[in-house]
């Protein structure tokens, strides 16, 4: 009887910690790659067809906005500071950054770049003031600009100070998470394509992620601290292949470890939920890890491009194709 009770208790504990994705909304109108979770209640998404969404009740209801004059733009990343203030990034032709201070009712253009080949990939903010935007290489160097006033203005880093890219090396604008903050006023970013690397200050670290084609390479990096990173990617043209789609480091990138059970396909985003718990997602599904990224369990087969945890809170949301927005839940 004691053994039976112990077995039942173990089952209950496992069941209580099991994860699933609760689908909150979907629509064929837009594909979302931008996601910013301010807290457990305030969530913003952005994507194709000039679409921005906002929820003030944890995803139960949504307000949908088509930004006037930008109906054809693809807003691949968004950074929200509260229920009224957010910055959105349109990738190219031209590359544009907009900001709202009134919950999306009006938008101010704070940056525009018409340089041939300009393609913005992702934004990251350390706080309400300091931010960075990353773009694909132009004339062999990655594009970087900084903001020190909450995205009200952007200052391009001089060409001589920009990191050099290898031939066929670029970044993926797949989830807004290939650039991440490290220490105060310091960031890192990852690349993909014919070559896949991690860039930290003057370091250029080759990644053990599949590479060699335009569709391959690292897509997202999650940073726990200056030593613990998890990188995901793969080949988005073969999104169920698990070959070299994830790597983790515990020493700041000096050495890399391959998971014993990798994510179940190409993954465009990875996010720390807690110290040893992570979530990652891609076009072929969502995986969850409870051991720091060493083993991954498939918890959903839906198409999600991005997953983010609340900056202040515990909620985790996901967004993806066909206007899908989901939330991580336990059962």
Task: Please give a structural write-up.
- The chain has a single domain, classed as YVTN repeat-like/Quinoprotein amine dehydrogenase (Methylamine Dehydrogenase, Chain H), CATH 2.130.10.
- With 331 residues, the chain is mainly β.
- The longest helix is centred in the first third of the chain and has 15 residues, at 2-16.
- The protein is built from one helix and 29 strands.
SSE layout and pairings?
Layout: H1 2-16, E1 19-25, E2 32-37, E3 43-47, E4 51-55, E5 63-66, E6 75-80, E7 86-90, E8 95-100, E9 108-113, E10 120-125, E11 131-138, E12 141-147, E13 155-156, E14 169-170, E15 179-181, E16 187-190, E17 192-193, E18 197-200, E19 203-206, E20 216-223, E21 229-235, E22 246-249, E23 269-272, E24 278-282, E25 285-289, E26 297-300, E27 306-309, E28 316-319, E29 325-330
Antiparallel strand pairs: 1-29, 2-3, 3-4, 4-5, 6-7, 7-8, 8-9, 10-11, 11-12, 12-13, 14-17, 15-16, 16-18, 18-19, 20-21, 21-22, 23-24, 24-25, 25-26, 27-28, 28-29
> Cα distance, first to last residue?
26 Å
From the spread of the alpha carbons, the general shape counts as globular
Number of strands: 29
The assigned structural class equals: mainly beta
Under CATH, the homologous superfamily reads: YVTN repeat-like/Quinoprotein amine dehydrogenase
> How many structural units, i.e. domains?
1
Q: What is the helix/strand order?
A: HEEEEEEEEEEEEEEEEEEEEEEEEEEEEE
Query: Proportion of β residues?
Result: 35-45%
Low-confidence stretches are 3-16
Instruction: Report the radius of gyration as a whole number of Å.
Output: 19 Å
Q: Strands across the major sheet, in which order?
A: 1-29-28-27
